[in-house]
């Protein structure tokens, strides 16, 4: 049996992430392992005329509360389909937090959705999926947004 521990599914709650979670659900059912559903958020400071204004505690709390609520809804959706779901909410740079969580939760596989940006948008925005693929010590399965849309149509 190839998967014997946990499957980590990273989510930002977009369509590619939901498709990744659905693939994770299928694999979790097949191999009878739990899904570790992780969401990482980063609260940025606001810059105005080169004077940094750090976010207030209330602002950071709003990010955390919204993330926890969305994570709970996605976990309930997956659990409603029969999966054992462990949720992890992390504050920090997404790709770093995904890799840290994969290590801490002792996973066999990481699954991430990707929007498939190329060229300048990818260079400017960066790619969480790309960094996870390049730096993960365990296999990473990426689910492209185009695949998510075509599967939903069928």
Q: What would you note in describing this structure?
A:
This protein is an alpha/beta fold. It has one domain (6-153): Rossmann fold (3-Layer(aba) Sandwich). The chain contains 6 helices and 7 strands, in the order βαβββαβαβααβα. A 5-stranded parallel sheet has the order 5-2-1-6-7, with helices on both faces. A two-stranded antiparallel ribbon has the order 3-4. Strand 3 and strand 4 form a beta hairpin. Helix 1 crosses helix 6.
Number of domains: 1
CATH homologous superfamily heading: HUPs
Q: Helix count, per DSSP?
A: 6
Number of strands: 7
Helix amount: 40-55%
Q: Main sheet: which strands, in order across?
A: 5-2-1-6-7
Q: Give the overall shape.
A: globular
Classification by helices and strands: alpha/beta
CATH architecture: 3-Layer(aba) Sandwich
Reading the helices and strands in chain order gives EHEEEHEHEHHEH
CATH class annotation: Alpha Beta
Might you state the CATH topology name?
Rossmann fold
The low-confidence parts are none
